[in-house]
Amino acid sequence: MDRVKRDILIAKADIDKRVQELADVISRDYEGKELVVIGILKGAFVFMADLIRSLRVPCMIDFVRLASYGTGTVSSGSIMITKDIETPIRGRDVLVVEDIVDTGLSLSFLVDRLKERDPQSLKVCVFLDKKERRKVPFEAEYVGFDIPDHFVVGYGLDFNEMYRFLPDVCVIKE
Ligand code: 5GP
């Protein structure tokens, strides 16, 4: 795997600093409250693990897994939940945590499904945002980094299930 060339786009030190900044803002926004933090598997697990350990508000955690299907290499926009959360969220303050928002299809689908369960509030925190790639309007309340349209790996993000373990966010060179 190390024969694949990659450039560092966001270094670990910058990630650590930004995650702490996000956690500070979120802790302030939810002061005195208790959160249900929902991570989207698998990509969000590294970011979420760092984020919750920097929060100063108590939280429960849960995970959801999504799959998109359709024909061809481009997602048709059909998304389904393949692993649901096990925590009731009615009346709770919910924070969805995702690795990256690209077309916006996954998160807009998930947010709609979760809102049907009547949470007290629901916000989204994404580590990376490729705003220029949206197919549907979607804006996360908390964004780690805006990035250009590159395929990135590391810090939880994969390419064919590899590279999630990298501490930096990298761009694979063709
Ligand atoms: P969306 O529904 O917003 O198009 O898709 C978001 C999902 O696409 C992410 O959770 C992630 O799995 C995948 N994705 C989008 N861009 C990238 C990328 O640059 N790198 C990786 N590893 N996954 C990406």
How does this model look, in words?
The chain is of the alpha/beta class. It is 22% helix and 33% strand. The chain is built from 3 helices and 9 strands, in the order βαβαβββαββββ. The protein has helices spanning 12-29, 45-54, 105-115, and strands spanning 6-10, 35-41, 59-69, 78-83, 93-101, 121-129, 142-146, 152-153, 169-172. Helix 1 crosses helix 2 (45-54). Guanosine-5'-monophosphate binds at residues 43, 98-107, 151-153, 157-159.
Tally the beta strands. Answer: 9
Number of helices: 3
Order of helix and strand elements from N to C terminus: EHEHEEEHEEEE
The biggest sheet amounts to: 6 strands, mixed
Oligomer: single chain
Ions, cofactors and other ligands present here are: guanosine-5'-monophosphate
Beta-strand proportion? 25-35%
Calculate the mean pLDDT score and round it.
Answer: 94
Overall shape: it is: globular
CATH hierarchy class name:
Alpha Beta
Q: Classify the fold: give the CATH topology.
A: Rossmann fold
